[in-house]
Amino acid sequence: xxxxxxxxxxxxxxxxxxxxxxxxxxxxxxxxxxxxxxxxxxxxxxxxxxxxxxxxxxxxxxxxxxxxxxxxxxxxxxxxxxxxxxxxxxxxxxxxxxxxxx
Length: 102
What we know:
By secondary structure, this protein is an all-alpha fold. The protein has one domain. Helices cover 88% and strands 0% of the residues. It contains 2 helices and no strands. The protein is rod-shaped, with a radius of gyration of 31 Å. The termini are far apart.
């Protein structure tokens, strides 16, 4: 995975790409409407499948992120319990040592 901070698909890039695609499909439709419409239909079907793929990926990513959050939360709870046990044990041990010294 890259470590990029700026998106590739900026508004400017989207507008340029849209214009290029529009020109391509417009020329194809003007040249041969049947072939042009076939290209547009194929592109539509391809985009719809990509949409479903992204939808699935976002759903899975959400599940993984939620699981990571729950694991992290559980780790904090266990650390707090362990910290409490250690403080209590240390306090008890300290009191016993004080009694032995007196």
